[in-house]
Write a structure and sequence with these properties.
The chain is of the alpha+beta class. The chain has three domains: 76 residues, Uridine Diphospho-n-acetylenolpyruvylglucosamine Reductase, domain 2; 126 residues, Uridine Diphospho-n-acetylenolpyruvylglucosamine Reductase, domain 3, CATH 3.30.465.10; 92 residues, Uridine Diphospho-n-acetylenolpyruvylglucosamine Reductase, domain 1, CATH 3.90.78.10. Helices cover 26% and strands 26% of the residues. The chain contains eight helices and 19 strands. It has a five-stranded antiparallel beta sheet with strand order 6-7-13-11-12. The protein has a four-stranded mixed beta sheet with strand order 1-2-5-3, covered by helices on one side. Strands 15-18-17-16 form a four-stranded antiparallel beta sheet. One of its GO terms (molecular function) is UDP-N-acetylmuramate dehydrogenase activity. InterPro entries: FAD-bd_PCMH, FAD-bd_PCMH-like_sf, FAD-bd_PCMH_sub1, FAD-bd_PCMH_sub2, MurB, MurB_C, MurB_C_sf, Oxid_FAD_bind_N. Its cofactor is FAD. Keywords: Cell cycle, Cell division, Cell shape, Cell wall biogenesis/degradation, Cytoplasm, FAD, Flavoprotein, NADP, Oxidoreductase, Peptidoglycan synthesis.
Amino acid sequence: MSTDWLQRWPGLRRDEPLARHSQFGIGGPADMFLRLDELAVVAELVARCTESGVPLTILGAGSNALVLDGGVRGLALRLMTKDLAVADGVATFAAGTMLPRAALDLAAAGWTGMEWGIGVPGSCGASIWGNAGAFGGDVEGSLVECEVVAPDGTTRWIAGADCAFGYRDSRFKHDLSGHVVLHGRFTVVADDIATVRARTHAVQSERKRTQPYGVRSLGSTFKNPPGDFAGRLLEAAGLAGRSHGGARISPKHANFILNVDHASAADVLALVHCARDEVASRFDVVLEREIVLLGEPASDAVAAQTAP
């Protein structure tokens, strides 16, 4: 693996703690780290990483991804471009655009269709990758197409219908796993501004009422099992408020884990492991993790807990 070319890249940081770049505030160091404000150079960067054998990890906002304590090998890349434009009933977001901000900006301009995005505290690129959704809406139901960079640096647009979206799933987790999302185009409809803003206010109010707000949260920890809700099962198992180290299962919604006191990724994984075992033991339901794990554990002691 040759990194001489990368060492000269403007803005490159070595041994950068990724806790600084995550809403959750947890994560070991990246060997190398870049924040990019210009999407035009992403294709070149991706292609050169592929050619030189540098592992590449794309970071979103860190609202549903847990960076492990051992950190990330190779290059961790954070796309910061937050452009938003609307034309002919289609809203185009750059990869770094935060969905809640975009939804509010669209509502203020009288565009409806993205109100569900207020409940997704993540970036456009990461949300497309994981088919994020909340309050009855998701990426699959709104995405027209997305622009992506392939490992060889070529770019193309992929129709939303060709992304093979599933429940918190897409082709970008499978056969397109080496691709990087640059833009997403979403369907919106012109509507009365007051009416749209009333809907966004209702979504905001419901989020604040039902989910932890104003604290460092990892988002939904587990996927909902068929015909049930992970939060209900976790609460029925008496797990709400359970703590380990600096991490705590939210007393308000047990499917959220909070960073309450400088938690480590190992603290969080201990709670994930405990919660999954407790629900399986009591209700014979094996919950599937929704949070994404990035990087490596600090030791073999927690490696077993990183299993799906």
